[in-house]
Amino acid sequence: MSTDDSDALYEALKGFEGRPTSSASVGRDPVNEPMIRHWCEAMGDTHPAYAGPDAIAPPTMLQAWTLGGLSGHPADSADSADSADSADGTRRSSAYEELSALLDSAGCTSIVATDCEQEYVRPLRPGDTVTFDAVIESVSPRKTTRLGTGHFITTRMEIRADGELAGTHRFRVLKYAPAAKTAEARQGDPKPLRPRPVVNRDNAGFWAGVAEHRLLVQRCAECATLRFPWLPGCNACGSRTWDTVEASGAGTVYSYVVMHHPPFPAFAPPYAVGLIELAEGVRMIGNVVGVPYDKVRIGMPVRLEFQRVDDDLELPMWRAGVED
């Protein structure tokens, strides 16, 4: 695509910013205790605020109440004739379809979700009726990524409970033209690297421990509950104060999967990924090594080891068949 064509495309894409993709949509169900219970059981979240007569919904369920399910939402009050359900739960008006079609025509035929952001204003409670509006908030200039070249599209959804703003959900995708390489070019590529772990202010201490060959688990300073993954607050009592304990490195396979697809250049499928229950009682995910992938079994004892996967990355893994 020439520079002039690229500039013209971007100007057309910018024209979609601010256009609504959903208006006055209504959640399929009011906020309800069974859904909250299922969510908490799936997440292992036992915080007392999410049960009992004064229960609230976990804040991270904000978008859950907007999802249309397999049958989708009833007709919206705006653009209902041209609407269609999307992967992130909104009802897409013709604006989003037109934007997608424009990118398709420019060769950006692939799409991948990149991230979402949520802001919480007030808690959702059983019985609340959820409504939501969504707009195309922004379309980025042309970006080149390892996947290919395209544009990031951000939609913003405002979610209300009985008419009162409860929170905001931003969902971002990359619509791109896949990068093409010849076989000769691929042969000359350096060995592909594993994806880098996302290190942020909440989990930086964990990765600092890995660098020292220590597996650190958070411990609540108020109720002494251990937790993993690392979180800013205790999911048992809500305290935001904590310290750490070093795990012994012993554990068992609580559950596992064998990865066959999708293939990724830095990995050699099939391989086993285990949910490991540590002797301390918390669980974490990691590769199971030391035995063939088809010999991994639930209950199998494992022990922590640190493996260097490239010059800049060392990861905790779990060697099977090691008895204490």
Strand content: 35-45%
CATH superfamily of the largest domain: Hotdog Thioesterase
Which class of secondary structure composition applies to the elements? alpha+beta
Q: Are there runs of 5+ residues with pLDDT below 50, and where?
A: 76-92
CATH class of the largest domain: Alpha Beta
Rg over alpha carbons: 23 Å
Distance between termini? Answer: 62 Å
Major beta sheet, specifics?
A: 6 strands, antiparallel
**Secondary structure tally, helices:** 5
Structure commentary:
The structure is a single chain. By secondary structure, the chain is α+β, with helices and mostly antiparallel strands. It has two domains: 181 residues, Roll (Thiol Ester Dehydrase, Chain A), CATH 3.10.129; 117 residues, no CATH class. Helix content is 15%, strand content 36%. It is built from five helices and 16 strands. Strands 1, 4, 5, 6, 7 and 8 form a six-stranded antiparallel sheet that branches. Strand 7 and strand 8 form a beta hairpin. It starts with a helix and ends with a strand. About 5% of the residues have low confidence.
Could you outline the blueprint of secondary structure elements for this entry?
Elements: H1 3-14, E1 20-26, H2 33-43, E2 84-85, E3 91-92, H3 94-105, E4 110-120, E5 130-139, E6 143-144, E7 148-161, E8 164-178, H4 183-187, H5 204-211, E9 216-220, E10 226-227, E11 242-246, E12 250-259, E13 271-278, E14 283-289, E15 301-310, E16 313-320
Parallel strand pairs: 14-16
Antiparallel strand pairs: 1-5, 2-3, 4-8, 5-7, 6-7, 7-8, 9-10, 9-11, 12-13, 12-15, 13-14, 15-16
